[in-house]
What does this fold into?
Amino acid sequence: MELKIGENIKRLRKAKDISQEDFAKLLGVSSQSVSRWENGVCYPDMELLPALAQYFKLSVDELLGVGDLEKSRQYDEINATWARNNAAGKNAENASLMRKALKNFPNDALLLVQLSTSLEKLAGSEEERQRNLRESIAIQEQILRFGEDSEVRAATMYNICFSYWKNGDHGKAIAQAKKLPNLYKSRENALIYFLDGEARRQISVAALAPLSWALEKHLSVLGDTDPTIRETAAKILDLLKSIQQPA
It folds into this structure.
């Protein structure tokens, strides 16, 4: 179990605006010891924990970051449960799971995305599906207004195009789609310039899945009017799939 005591000491010490040297004097240790704690090199001696907790007016568990670790464990379990339910088509369970989770993790972008996705997959009457779709759109617009996670925002910018389209807002869907980055400006296309060796090769392999998907979509459109393109496309896609297969 990774304790966060060093991070917590550093954050709390700075909040009190006390230097490492003065803090060390209060505890009767060297400033080098405080520095080592805060850099994660080692932990304070056990007998110092009550004094540290008392100084910062915390419990020992809070100082150790045990609460944060438990919260992180709960968050990971929630997302793992959502993934299992999603694979099994348990969308109603997932919608309920995300609503409950968001009470403990308010405005968490990933949980909001998963709620949005679950809502759009729910069965029901046409009226119920439309209501769920409208709620999904409202959630996605909330993510785009307030979400800070760049990857979640990027995914939401893409997904909301399809939600608008399903809702009959075709003009909105097209306008939103035109705001998306083009194929050139991607993470993989940038990283191959900065990495080397095996890391660089892995990025190229990782890029093949979305590239294959994009090529299949675009070449199928062109192949509708030109059979030779359709035949060539099949060969290209087979080659890409073979490269992605593990050796």
